[in-house]
Write a structure and sequence with these properties.
By secondary structure, the protein is mainly β. The chain is 0% helix and 52% strand. It has no helices and eleven strands. The termini are far apart.
Length: 123
């Protein structure tokens, strides 16, 4: 059974840092892409990053480039998203998702989703 379980998040001040994690199980991580998404109240879900696990490459949406970093603990089948230099616009529920293939594939579908974890940015 495929499972993605997010953890971490919480409250940070503007300019601060947080980490959110996605523990995966039930599938071979190397065959999948892992995406991070976020959704703020009243806004559409936004893609934050996509990591092609087979090659270890990650692409980021422009608004988080240089501030957010994805790294993987393959021994624990866990993908982490490090959020730094947070601003108010980063506050959202963060979700991880898994889809078979690579980020540059036009056939990539996000088949599995976690339950989400809250990131709050406030002074």
């Amino acid at each position: 059974q495929v499972q993605l379980v997010e953890s971490g998040g919480g409250l940070a001040q503007p300019g601060g840092s947080l980490r959110v994690s996605c523990a995966t199980s039930g599938f071979t991580l190397d065959y999948y892409a892992i995406g991070w998404f976020r959704q703020a109240p009243g806004k559409e879900r936004e893609g934050v990053s996509c990591t092609s696990m087979s090659v270890g490459s990650t692409r980021y949406t422009d608004s988080v480039k240089g501030r957010f970093t994805v790294f993987t603990d393959k021994a624990k089948n866990t993908v982490h998203l490090e959020l730094t230099r947070l601003n108010l616009e980063d506050a959202a529920i963060y979700y991880c998702a898994a889809g078979q293939g690579r980020c540059d594939s036009s056939y990539l579908l996000w088949a599995y989703w976690g339950q989400g974890t809250q990131v709050t940015v406030s002074s």
